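STRUCTURE:
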C-alpha cells in the first residue's frame, strides 16, 4: 500500500495543501476529498505543494484535471509548486504546464494570486 499524507494550512485567503509520499490510484481519493472540502468551504484559491511528493500516477494527475474547471469557474485557481524533477517530468509530458501555473515556491504562487486579482 502506498504511503501518502496531506497537510493543510492557510495563508491569508489561500489554502495550501502539502502532499507527501506517493499519489496513485489508492491515495488519489484522499486528495479528491481535500479539494472537495475546500470547494464546499468556498476556498477557491488553492496551492498544492509537491516538495514531499515522490511519485504521481495517472490517477493522481486525473484529480487535478477533474477539479480545475470547477475551481476556475468559481473564481479561483489551483497553482502547483515545489515539484521534484521526476514529478515535474510527468506533468510536462502530458502538457500540464500549459494548463496550470507550475511554480518553484509557494511565495511565487501567492504573488501570482495577488496579480491575478488586479
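SEQUENCE:
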Amino acid at each position: 500500500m502506498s504511503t501518502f499524507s496531506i497537510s493543510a494550512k492557510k495563508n491569508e485567503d489561500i489554502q495550501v495543501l502539502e502532499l507527501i509520499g506517493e499519489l496513485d490510484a489508492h491515495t488519489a481519493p484522499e486528495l479528491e476529498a481535500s479539494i472537495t472540502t475546500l470547494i464546499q468551504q468556498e476556498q477557491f484559491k488553492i496551492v498544492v505543494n509537491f516538495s514531499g511528493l515522490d511519485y504521481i500516477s495517472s490517477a493522481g494527475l486525473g484529480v487535478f484535471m477533474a477539479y480545475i474547471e470547477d475551481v476556475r469557474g468559481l473564481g479561483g485557481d489551483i497553482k502547483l509548486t515545489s515539484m521534484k524533477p521526476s514529478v515535474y517530468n510527468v506533468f510536462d509530458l502530458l502538457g500540464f504546464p500549459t494548463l496550470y501555473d507550475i511554480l518553484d515556491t509557494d511565495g511565487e504562487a501567492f504573488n501570482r494570486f495577488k496579480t491575478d486579482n488586479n
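REMARK: Residues 4-105 form a domain with the Transcription Regulator spoIIAA fold (CATH 3.30.750.24).
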